[in-house]
Amino acid sequence: MAFTVANARVLITGGASGMGRLYAERAIREQARSVTLWDIDPLALDTTASALSGYGTIVHTRVVDVSQLDNVRDAARHELDSFRVPDVLINNAGIVRGNDYFWDTDSERDTEPTMRINAIAPMHVTREFLPAMIGDGSREKRILNVASAAGTLANPRMSVYAASKWALIGWSDSVRLELERSGNGHVKITTFCPSYVTTGMFEGARGPLMTPLLAPDVAVQRAWQAMLSGKPFRLTPWTVGLARGLKGVLPTTVWDRVADRVFSVYSSMDEFTGRSTTVFPRTTEPAKETKA
């Protein structure tokens, strides 16, 4: 029987806006039992919860700083104590810093938060929920880890971001194998690797040759379908897979010339500006629930 989100419990990190909100909307359209949104922005959480009301799905919101292990543990404990073992866990929260050479980056402002949020946070979140997901054999489970094409190819001016996504991909696929080899294949992991998505995070970035910037709804639709089918990887658009394959077979010096002069990968971040980042206090509010 094909996996369905109908009557499932869905938890989404970074769920108050952007692609996180689109995942929530998709889950509600497909009649999820409940959707839990974690985000660091309390105002965006309230706005999104209000917009998602009235559709028959219970929406839970909680202010969580996923870069802080104590925040993650407290929030996860609340979910589990409330008998809400996720059927679908979407590790969507992420940040990007770019347009600087590595030696011009700031370790505290750039490196630490990027690695904590993009790479370490999905590990912490998944670790808190995975034993319960394994133990609940009532239905198949899904974990969607949102990585990036940057985790498959080196790219100047985004070394720390690329490192965080390389780490995420390696960890995500390793856990997938552990689940399969340990007889816990009812929990399936999908690693999603899109090129630049027009959420504002990559404002100013240019798509490489034959690699258009992806609209958020297109990216979410492709990730969602891969997650439902339990597909281990989804690289999109198709040129991401092509570039990955060429890099694997060509000598490094040849690939560098092709990536730079033909595909324009290495100049894609030259005009990156990104969006301004708002810093929110590291606090955790009690979960707020609305009937949607």
Helix share of residues? 40-55%
Structural class of the secondary elements?
A: alpha/beta
> Nearest-angstrom radius of gyration?
19 Å
Q: Say which CATH homologous superfamily is assigned.
A: NAD(P)-binding Rossmann-like Domain
CATH C-level class = Alpha Beta
Description of the molecule:
- By secondary structure, the chain is α/β, with parallel strands linked by helices.
- The protein has one domain (9-291): NAD(P)-binding Rossmann-like Domain (Rossmann fold).
- The chain is built from eight helices and eight strands.
- The chain has helices at 18-29, 42-51, 69-81, 107-135, 159-181, 216-229, 238-249, 252-262, and strands at 9-13, 34-39, 58-63, 88-91, 141-146, 187-194, 233-236, 288-291.
- An eight-stranded mixed sheet has the order 7-6-5-4-1-2-3-8, sandwiched between helices.
- α1 (18-29) links the parallel β1 and β2 (34-39).
- α1 (18-29) crosses α6 and α4 (107-135) runs parallel beside α5 (159-181).
- The radius of gyration is 19 Å and the shape is globular.
- The two termini are 28 Å apart.
- Mean pLDDT is 89; it is low at 276-292.
Briefly summarize what is shown:
The chain is built from eight helices and eight strands, in the order βαβαβαβαβαβαβααβ. By secondary structure, the chain is of the alpha/beta class. It has a single domain, classed as NAD(P)-binding Rossmann-like Domain (Rossmann fold), CATH 3.40.50.
